[in-house]
Amino acid sequence: MPFAVASQISPSGMTLAGKHGIGIISIGSMSSEGLNALPTQWGFAEAAAAKHGKTVDRKNWRVLLSWHIAETREKARAEAREGLLRHHNQYIVGTLQRPDAKPFNDPDEAVDKAAFSDGASATIGTPDDLVARIKSVLEISGGFGTLVGFVHDWANPENTMRSWDMVARYVVPEINGYLAKLRDSQHFVATNRGVFDRAKEAIMAKITENEAAVAALSVTRGSRLGDVASASNVPDLEKARAQAGGR
Predict the structure, then answer these.
(1) How far apart are the first and last CA of the chain?
(2) What is the pLDDT of residues 24-36, one digit of tens each?
(3) Separation of alpha carbons 127 and 168, rounded Å
(4) 209 DSSP 8-state letter
(5) Which CATH superfamily hosts domain 4-180?
(6) Among residues 27, 57, 67, 95, which is most buried (max CB within 10 A)?
(7) What are the start and end residues of each CATH 3.20.20.30 domain in the chain?
(8) pTM
């Protein structure tokens, strides 16, 4: 069973993880100070591991981030603003009473300072915004194994579920490289038209040798096959019929 130690800003969590050679979850990354401290934090783990004859692996390092995602930044702001204000003022300030936390005056200030100010650690915006944030944290930290999303109630349940759905659909494939081969394939098709033109010519040569094949091909016009074919690959049926009739 894998074990993980929580780490914030002090060396304690990372040192303990290094001492026992176990995983870490960095919860301090939800603040700008915590994000900037990530490289130093990992150094604590490596130093402790070396001291105690253990090893630590970045693939076992989990980093916690907060976000709310929508189709546009404006929509994400509108969905999260009221809940973020309550979460910060009533929970972070009123309940946890963090010494450095000050209440926000209004929802717009809450969104601006949490996600759009210098050193902001949360992401409120589009899937592309979250991709950029994750890549930035990967670069700052030097790399980690798992990103953990903080579950909150900034938005209503419906909008919150859609936010997580968009992360699964658009952010996870981008970050994990699932789209790389698809993009390579698209680039090949777009830049190697000669390959497909030669294939079309070979197919048409076989079709024009057989009148029944020419007749059968004609029924694909307007069919699903015909609809999805690109214009550059659609055979010239009239030319095929003329060639077949001329024999």
Answers:
(1) 75
(2) 999 987 777 777 7
(3) 10
(4) T
(5) Luciferase-like domain (3.20.20.30)
(6) 67
(7) 4-180
(8) 0.78
